[in-house]
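STRUCTURE:
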């Protein structure tokens, strides 16, 4: 039996967005999503409109990706930073809008940097820059950016990311804790802070990690580190200091106690 045509599946996915989203995606976002071969980024059911998991990271549903990009409102030739490269799909959609050489992505997990690079290369977006680092610090070497998209939640936007925007730039991310998050767009204000200029309803993304919180970070607490090592060895693993159980009742029998 022949496999379904990815282009047909992509069209079905795009048509489905009209029903799952309160507001249909803009023409620019729809065209960009329709141009990206999602099967190069998502192994299982790439065109199903649902959140998945791959390589230890969350893969956002196409509907969520559309909402993020519509809130970002990127234009051709805008320089864009994506915080949370993940599997690289969001960066690929941006590459269709602004041009691949204008997209910079950063991820705190080295494994995801390699994953995103490989996926973007396979899909034809080699010009997208993917680097490893603490996303809350941004990429000052390539700043300023016209747009910053954060695929993780925080109570407020990291100051470094706001500072790396051009004066009329825009940052989009979920603001809030736990399930109480609002997809917000913020812009720098005249006092060096920021103001919320748009809100696009509820969304639930994982919290923004800082250096040391990622899954592949070294464990600095000795007790936590050794407990994990002992768990891997097994409950009855020998470490060199245990003694056989001594039955003191038998040893002391016949002696003064």
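SEQUENCE:
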């Amino acid at each position: 039996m022949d496999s379904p045509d990815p282009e047909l599946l992509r069209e079905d996915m795009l048509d489905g967005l009209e029903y799952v989203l309160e507001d249909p995606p803009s023409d620019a976002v729809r065209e960009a999503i329709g141009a990206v071969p999602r099967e190069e980024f998502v192994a299982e059911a790439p065109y199903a409109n649902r959140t998945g998991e791959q390589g230890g990271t969350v893969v956002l549903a196409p509907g969520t990706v559309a909402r993020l990009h519509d809130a970002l409102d990127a234009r051709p030739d805008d320089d864009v930073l994506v915080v949370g490269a993940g599997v690289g799909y969001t960066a690929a959609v941006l590459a269709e809008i602004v041009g691949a050489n204008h997209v910079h992505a950063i991820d705190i997990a080295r494994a995801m940097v390699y994953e995103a690079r490989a996926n973007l290369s396979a899909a034809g977006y080699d010009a997208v820059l993917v680097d490893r680092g603490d996303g809350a610090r941004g990429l000052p070497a390539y700043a300023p950016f016209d747009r910053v998209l954060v695929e993780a939640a925080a109570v407020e936007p990291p100051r470094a990311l706001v500072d790396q925007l051009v004066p009329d730039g825009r940052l989009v991310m979920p603001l809030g804790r736990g399930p109480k998050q609002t997809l917000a767009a913020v812009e720098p204000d005249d006092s060096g802070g920021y103001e919320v200029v748009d809100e696009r309803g509820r969304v639930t993304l994982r919290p923004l990690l800082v250096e040391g919180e990622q899954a592949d970070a070294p464990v600095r607490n000795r007790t936590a580190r050794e407990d994990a090592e002992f768990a891997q060895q097994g409950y009855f693993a020998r470490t060199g200091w245990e003694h056989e159980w001594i039955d003191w009742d038998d040893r002391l029998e016949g002696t003064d106690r």
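REMARK: Residues 72 and 85 are 16 Å apart (CA to CA).
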